[in-house]
Amino acid sequence: MADKAKLDLGDKVIELPIVEGSEGEKAIDISRLRAETGFITLDNGFVNTGSCMSGVTFLNGEKGILRYRGYPIEQLAESSNFLEVSWLLYYGELPSSTEMVNFKKKVSSFSKLPEGIEKLVDTFPKTAHPMGVLSCATAALSAYYEDFLGPQPTKEDKDVLFAQLLGQLKVIVSRFYRKSQGLDLIASNPELDYCSDFLMMMFGEADADVAKALDVLLILHADHEQNCSASTVRVVGSSHANIFSTISGGIDALWGQLHGGANQAVLEMLDEITTEGGDAAKALEKAKDKEDPFKLMGFGHRVYKNFDPRAKIIKVACDTVLEKLKVNDPLLNIAKGLEEQALKDEYFVKRKLYPNVDFYSGIIYKALGIPTNMFTAMFVLGRLPGWLSQWKELREDTSAKICRPRQIYTGATERNYKKLDER
Ligand code: ACO
Hints:
- This protein has 18 helices and six strands.
- With 423 residues, it is mostly helical.
- The protein folds into three domains: 4-50, Rubrerythrin, domain 2; 66-253 and 382-389, Citrate Synthase, domain 1; 262-368, CATH 1.10.230.10.
- Strand 1 (4-8) and strand 2 (13-20) form a beta hairpin.
- Helix 4 (97-108) crosses helix 7 (155-180), helix 11 (243-255) packs across helix 18 and helix 12 crosses helix 17 (357-368).
- It starts with a strand and ends in a 27-residue tail after the last helix.
- The structure holds acetyl coenzyme *A (ACO).
- Acetyl coenzyme *A (ACO) is lined by residues 45, 258-260, 262, 287, 295-302, 351, 353, 356-358.
- Acetyl coenzyme *A is lined by residues 45, 258-260, 262, 287, 295-302, 351, 353, 356-358.
């Protein structure tokens, strides 16, 4: 294959370098395009745009492959655990047993929030959306850790921040849950694994199988290359904003229902279908109607066009949790019915729309007793190591630039201002 692409602009032909990744992905490097031709590229939603070179996560949407640092997601879900996967994503290699023990201790050492953050979390109305609380409290951590606000975090800073945010965000989520339910707080227990500790802080009990299922869920969410929230983290981080506001930006991007907010939206949709008589076919028709803005939540993905490998694993975790907790959720039957019909429906088949990771995650969270509006905050806990790894990679890339796309302007051309009495 040629190592250059030719671009014929009529009066000029230029050659653009072709870049190839370690899994054979090819890109045309247009970094000199504007300087040499005056042209920019236009790519709504960045559907064809590689925003960076990255060694964190590989996914192939056509083949349904997802690997963190080269390790297949199926193997990690089966045999690893969330903290180990977090380390792998952040540092690029699996930890030694000593590194793992120390890392767990370090994360546990951040199971206390600054008093001001505790007060802040407790000040929100009980009905506040947990994503707003989490985003705000994460940004507000910057007020208590001024040493980390400089534009050039050191290696030691990055090591601490990684463990600190993994520890503290878990506490913010569980604290807001307990407070919003009018329940007493339960302190973190450093002896427990990450998910058992979280379940204890939330509910005062932690079944080993349920904790394992939650751990798998967090592993599946841990990174997903340049998705909307990871890209937001990179965009914010590219200005050398501090890590707290950078992660807060990621949380905000995740909140939307086309992204992480889909897990809440799936449950609300299943609830609505149940209330309206449980007719899955009616919901499918609505989703297909181009006049109707309704979409089948939990279906479709920007990159997975055959199946979402995470959805396959999550179905098994879902069955484990429902069986263990003896939950017979009618929503699951509606979900299964919807999936079955959609997978046979020409509209969905033609557009390659399959259930994504969020189609089943909400059912697990519901079975665990987590309120619907808290589902996306659970996704934050899972995605946090991914955001941090993307941020670290960005900040260590000496060729990284501030993200500043261009546009094709379509507004009014120059005109003269008229004072109020002249209009
Ligand atoms: N229900 C009905 N139709 C759909 C759906 C859906 N869930 N998703 C896509 N389509 C249709 C579109 O209307 C479009 O149809 P057209 O070609 O006739 O115009 C076609 O499928 C292609 O869809 P796009 O919106 O162009 O695909 P895009 O890659 O931009 O969007 C997205 C992907 C946002 C995930 C979309 O599929 C969607 O909105 N899904 C529902 C929300 C959801 O589950 N989000 C979670 C994603 S996973 C995650 O972030 C963790």
